[in-house]
Design a protein that fits this description.
The complex is a heterodimer of chains A (about 260) and B (about 200). Chain A is mostly helical. In chain A, about 60% of the residues lie in helices and about 5% in strands. Chain B is globular and about 60 Å long. Classes of the chains: A mainly alpha (about 260), B mainly alpha (about 200).
Amino acid sequence: MPEHTNNGMQCNEFDLLLSEALDGLLSRAELDRFEAHARACKTCGPLVADAEAGRQWLKGLMEVEPPANLVNNILASTTGVDTQRLMARAPVSQPRISWWEQVQASFLEPVWAIVRQPRFAMSFGMAFFALSVSLTVAGVKPADLAQISLRPSAIRRTYYNTQARVVRYYDNVKLVYDVQAAVRGIKRNLNPAEPARSKQNDHKNDTTQQPEQKQERNYSQTGDQLILASAQLGPSVLNPVNPDLPVVSVTTYRRIV
Amino acid sequence: MEDVQVVAMLVRRCIAGDAAAWEEIVRTYNRRIYNICYRFAGSSEDAQDLTQEVFIKMYRTLPSYDSSKGAFVTWVTTITRNLLVDHFRKTKQDRMTDSMDSTSSEHEDAQPLSEQIPDQSAPPDAHVHSREVSETVHQALAKLSPELREAVILRDLQDMDYKEIAAVLRVPEGTVKSRINRGRAELARLLQRTYRQVM
């Protein structure tokens, strides 16, 4: 724009005031100077009319309506979510989803969401810690686990071996043995042998008495017991009734198995 | 123009992952952005693609919005304008764009812009006539240089004030006013030639 002055206003200043003049923002004094310059300047004068005409043309332009599916496309391209409301308004074809993606969406994602929670991680850690402590106390080593045979016969054999070991351990406890011996002694004192034996004969087919018989046989009537006999010769120990016969004293020791 | 607190709340909800807030922003601003893109790019298809690109960029850079530095609409318009300029550079449209000044002064032998605009006779129906006038103005607008076009679009079609336009275009207010004046004047001259020829 030329840099000449008309009526105390340069063309540059006129250019800056033109927009405000069209907007009606100039003061009276500024407007007078502006109009005076427009009348006098052959370059700036036509510019006022053209700018005002262009402004009117642009004001006549109506706002255009965006395509109906624009919002849907924007949401799909940003969040990847198509709401039902949007689908109803502008239906779009759904992409094919593979079965693996369906499994991920319906099963793996919810499970993974639970697993990711700190509460679940804490519980899992505590359970693992408790299990490892229990196995350590029980004497189970990870190296032993690899050698375990899972065949049915092997499992059965392991079961019976373990059961036998437990029974042996129980029977070998001294306290248990003492209690059992005391109980049997009390029973023997309370029930004489003969009536009890006749009573046993009366109930020969009563199988409930068999464990008692076995116990008696084990500890008083079998050859497992160790019997030591000794005869001491001498006048103090001679039988006063028949001094020719020696007195025999018998001492029995029970072997604890 | 916009409730600053409401918009700031919407932006915070969006950043927190609220899909409904983002949908509200899209619904609020898609019309404005689409119109800017349509008037600048000239075609509906380009405007639709550019509008989607604007929102994708908005979605990614939303946490960088600082309400203390300016209004949200100014931030949105700046993103739009930057994308439009990038698009313009990619398509090399600036080489094909002509202006009234260059045509009249530098290329006297070239075909005037008024002849490039399709000759459309005025239909009897006023509504159709109005629509065709709008189409003619739209085509004339597309012939302006990008600097003048973006200035008049933001001022006369989006009703932004000079200060906001200066912030979007990153030029002084005086430059904004000058571009608006020249853009309006060029558009008027172009359309006067068009209708003078039709008459």
